[in-house]
What does this fold into?
Amino acid sequence: MTTIAYRDGTIACDSCWAVDGMVDTLSKKIKRLKYGVLLGGAGDGDARFFDKLLSVKRPEDLPTYEQLQTLRIESMHLLIFPDKRIFKIATNFSIEDGAGVWEVEGTFTAIGAGASFAIGAMEAGATARQAV
It folds into this structure.
């Protein structure tokens, strides 16, 4: 299970994930990409997987819907560009039209299993770190 939150220039994630009772505290859920883009990943494809896929300098370089559909994984990713623009990428192939890229209109957001709780916490004034 993963929660990744972004607010005011800070991206934070929980410290571990659990699957079938096994807990991994060593996974990289957040990574800085080649051109300074911050990437956080939740789901089947974590930040290490998308690091190889995304070599983006600007939002115009993000993958298309068709490219995302070929991945055949269930994941959600958060990208923060150096200019502070925030984008979400979904690759939920089992849901019709469950893949896409969209810009977040706002100053904070969250993804993952605890996203709604993190967004609620940030609505109440919490930092990204406090929210996760």
The longest strand covers residues 38-43. The radius of gyration is 14 Å. Residues 86 and 106 are 8 Å apart (CA to CA). Helices lie at 47-53, 65-69, 115-123, 128-131.
